[in-house]
């Protein structure tokens, strides 16, 4: 018979043996790497400035990939999407020389050298149409996934919808464990794209595909992946992260996706931010900005244009149910360059093999973009596009007005007043202090047109009342912070969280913006201050704007179909689906005019700031060009020039 002391000793021994066994159990260290939002920045080159760049390029990230891969025994590499569109190289392949069936898209000439495991499809992959997308993807020697785009079968029965792409993939991978033994791990990958593609690329997708909610799709497929034996599930949402209540059809759904059971890691993108490290997410419930987790799921978002490599280091342990499970980990990002004042300091060199792989297309793009289309009698820049009427927007609006005047001749719309909406696409922000349009007077080449209008949008014309035009401008006026006119303290004018491409200037009317009033709409287009009006003294042809009068407004497909959450712009006010792209309209306008004067007509201005000292940032190159109502103050820690506006 065993005494109590013997029993206690046996229990201690058993416990010690169990702990020893646990401590000695083999684990697997797995490195998961991510690229995202490359946007055809395959080489380290600035096509708009026509010069080499230290701050962009897959060829630079490739150096980081190879170094990170060499540091570990086990790794996988994933691309999140928004690959095929973004630079003139993308346009050249899609619209210039035109990719043919059987040819390999230059994006995959480069990526095929880097041993990617899987790719996800971003929203900009649809910009050139489904045929071009499928033709391009055929050149990838790695698989693509997307779970929430389905074939439009037209039967109105969602229960029998078939995925347009492979929704997920489970790959058996051989890894070396901590004891040096080879183990097989089943890694599942599932991809998502914003459902808003059906709005943003309506003309390319309507009647062909439908896009469904990201969260509902994940809740359908992730359990299925688990049931099929996936040990580790990696979600690849081309979707940003924001703290807002979940709504079906969410564009930036990553925060809520992290709550879906079964997902182990999230490689996200779309919003061109960096995680871990995005300070706007500090203090957000469930987010650890140091360890890189969202509700306990390891996550990373590595910037844009090849600025960073995302890295998640997972520790896998054997699961009690068999197979492997995630026990711990850490997420991080690695940059290709850093900013020191006005300078970009490269942290790595470009991988020559990547640049060499696409040299033919790169050189073709340079020749394509250097063609002359017109001449300007003055410099064109966007240094002050957010604080005064601007020549870079003026040219676009002049071109769009000219185009619509021509296409309405002989139609029922002839004689209607025509307005035009344009926005500054390059105005600093996350793009950095060099991210501005700056075209010197003289010859204007096609590369300059692409600099003025960087997206391959299609021109649309909407019909709105004067009252609706004013509400359009009220949303755009969210670009600015509310200014306290009774304070003499320095106040920042520009709301840095507001995308500059949503700051529409509407030409053909005159108006002023009173930023001492609160914004009427929030960033999501919700009416939050119903009694507030920032848009004042609106006139048309010298008289107060008739709010009941109807106007044709030239814009782009993104805005006309709901992009940016503007009221009365959801697609149903479109009256003309133009056959041309906005950028082509600008190029043809310049060709027709031959010589242009780009001076802005000054149709908008700010109302008085009161006693306030109002400041904004711009490029350091703007210092010598500042008009008399602006004073240069200093450089900030990001290399932007600070100006005071009087």
**Could you state the CATH homologous superfamily of the largest domain?**
Metallo-dependent phosphatases
Discrete helix count: 16
Give the integer mean of the pLDDT values: 92
CATH topology of the largest domain: Purple Acid Phosphatase, chain A, domain 2
**Broad structural category:** alpha/beta
Quick one: CATH class of the largest domain?
Answer: Alpha Beta
What is the CA-CA span between the terminal residues? 95 Å
Number of domains: 2
Kindly state the number of beta strands: 38
Percent strand equals 25-35%
Over all CA atoms, what is the radius of gyration?
27 Å
Fraction of residues in helices? 10-25%
Shape: globular
Sketch the major β-sheet. 8 strands, mixed
Q: Which quaternary structure do these chains form?
A: single chain
CATH architecture term of the largest domain: 4-Layer Sandwich
Give short descriptive properties of this protein.
23% helix; 16 helices; 2 domains; alpha/beta; Purple Acid Phosphatase, chain A, domain 2; 6-stranded mixed sheet; 8-stranded mixed sheet; 646 residues; 5'-nucleotidase,  domain 2
Overview of the structural elements:
There is one protein chain. The chain has about 650 residues and is of the alpha/beta class. The chain has two domains: about 25-360, Metallo-dependent phosphatases (Purple Acid Phosphatase, chain A, domain 2, 4-Layer Sandwich); about 370-645, 5'-Nucleotidase, C-terminal domain (5'-nucleotidase,  domain 2). It is built from 16 helices and 38 strands. Strands 8, 9, 11, 12, 13, 14, 15 and 16 form an eight-stranded mixed sheet that branches. Helix 3 (about 90-95) crosses helix 11 (about 360-370). The termini are far apart. The relative contact order is 0.11.
């Amino acid at each position: 018979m065993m005494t109590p002391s013997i029993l206690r000793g046996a229990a201690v021994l058993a416990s010690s043996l169990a702990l020893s066994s646990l401590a000695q159990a083999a684990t697997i260290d797995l490195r998961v790497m991510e690229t995202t939002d490359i946007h055809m920045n395959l080489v380290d080159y600035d096509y708009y400035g026509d010069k080499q760049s230290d701050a962009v390029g897959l060829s630079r990230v490739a150096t980081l990939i190879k170094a990170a891969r060499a540091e570990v025994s086990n790794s996988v590499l994933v691309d999140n999407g928004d690959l095929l569109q973004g630079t003139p190289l993308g346009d050249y392949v899609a619209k210039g020389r035109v990719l043919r069936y059987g040819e390999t898209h230059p994006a995959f000439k480069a990526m095929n050298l880097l041993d990617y495991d899987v790719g996800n499809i971003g929203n900009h992959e649809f910009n050139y149409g489904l045929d071009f997308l499928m033709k391009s993807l055929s050149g990838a020697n790695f698989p693509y996934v997307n779970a929430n785009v389905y074939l439009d079968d037209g039967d109105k029965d969602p229960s029998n919808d078939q995925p347009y792409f492979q929704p997920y993939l489970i790959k058996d991978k051989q890894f070396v464990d901590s004891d040096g033994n080879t183990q097989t791990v089943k890694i599942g990958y599932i991809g998502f794209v914003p459902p808003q593609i059906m709005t943003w690329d309506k003309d390319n997708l309507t009647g062909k595909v439908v896009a469904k909610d990201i969260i509902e799709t994940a809740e359908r497929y992730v359990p299925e992946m688990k049931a099929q034996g996936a040990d580790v599930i990696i979600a690849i949402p081309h979707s940003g992260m924001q703290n807002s209540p979940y709504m079906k059809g969410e564009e930036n759904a990553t925060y809520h996706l992290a709550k879906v059971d079964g997902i182990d890691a999230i490689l996200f993108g779309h919003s061109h931010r960096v995680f871990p490290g995005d300070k706007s997410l500090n203090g957000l419930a469930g987010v650890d900005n140091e360890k890189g987790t969202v509700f306990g799921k390891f996550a990373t978002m590595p910037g844009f244009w090849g600025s960073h490599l995302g890295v998640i280091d997972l520790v896998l342990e054997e699961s009690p149910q068999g197979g492997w499970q995630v026990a711990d980990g850490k997420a991080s990002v690695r940059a290709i360059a850093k900013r020191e004042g006005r300078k970009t300091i490269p942290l790595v060199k470009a991988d020559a093999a990547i640049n060499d792989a696409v040299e033919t297309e790169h050189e073709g793009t340079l020749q394509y973009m250097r063609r002359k289309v017109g001449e300007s009698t003055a410099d064109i820049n966007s240094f002050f596009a957010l604080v005064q009427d601007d020549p870079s927007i003026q040219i676009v609006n002049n071109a769009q007005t000219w185009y619509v005047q021509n296409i309405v001749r002989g139609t029922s719309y002839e004689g209607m007043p025509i307005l035009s909406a344009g926005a500054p696409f390059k105005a600093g922000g996350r793009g950095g202090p060099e991210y501005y349009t700056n075209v010197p007077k003289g010859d204007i080449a096609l590369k300059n047109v692409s600099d003025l209008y960087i997206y391959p949008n299609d021109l649309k014309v909407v019909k709105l009342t004067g009252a609706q035009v004013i509400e359009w401008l009220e949303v755009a006026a969210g670009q600015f912070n509310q200014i306290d006119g009774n304070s003499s303290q320095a106040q920042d004018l520009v709301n840095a969280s507001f995308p500059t491409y949503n700051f529409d200037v509407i030409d053909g009317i005159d108006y002023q913006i009173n930023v001492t009033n609160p914004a009427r709409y929030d960033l999501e287009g919700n009416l939050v201050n119903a009694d507030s009006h920032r848009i004042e003294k609106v006139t048309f042809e010298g008289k107060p704007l008739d709010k009941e009068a109807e106007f044709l407004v030239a814009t782009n497909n993104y805005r006309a179909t709901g992009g940016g959450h503007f009221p009365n712009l959801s697609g149903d006010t479109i009256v003309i689906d133009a056959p041309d792209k906005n950028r082509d309209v600008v190029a043809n306008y310049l060709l027709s005019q031959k010589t242009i004067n780009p001076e802005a007509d000054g149709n908008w201005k700010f109302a008085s700031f009161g006693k306030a000292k109002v400041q904004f940032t711009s490029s350091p190159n703007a210092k010598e060009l500042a008009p008399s109502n602006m004073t240069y103050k200093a450089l900030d820690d990001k290399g932007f020039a600070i100006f005071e506006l009087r």
